[in-house]
Design goal:
Length: 116
């Protein structure tokens, strides 16, 4: 065989080997890219789950706060009713005390007039 044919065969073998290595490398790189994408999406999903859990905790806290505020509003309404009742009672007591004072003053004046 002439040396030129051997050189061509060796060159073709080199090209074939280069193609095979290139194709295998490309597949390997595409696998790495796919794995990288998978890892990125898994991390993103974990972040979203964490955000969802945080949002749920905030919602629970907000609902508890609303419940406490509603209870306080109910208490305030009750205190307001009681205050109104007590104010009316105090007003009535003041009228009675004023009447008693007036009677005492009249009795006291009347007693002074009798003594003079």
């Amino acid at each position: 065989m002439p040396s030129e044919v051997i050189a061509i065969i060796i060159s073709l073998c080199g090209v074939i080997i280069a193609l095979v290595i290139g194709i295998l490398g490309a597949k390997h790189n595409s696998r790495i890219d796919v794995q990288s994408r998978i890892d990125t999406e898994v991390k993103r999903a974990a972040d979203m789950a964490s955000i969802g859990a945080t949002m749920q905790a905030i919602q629970i806290t907000t609902n508890e706060t609303k419940s406490v505020v509603q209870g306080m509003q109910s208490d305030m309404t009750d205190f307001n009713r009681r205050l109104i009742f007590n104010e009316a009672s105090v007003k009535s007591a003041h009228k009675r005390i004023d009447n008693v004072e007036d009677r005492l003053n009249m009795t006291h004046r009347g007693g002074e007039e009798d003594e003079d």
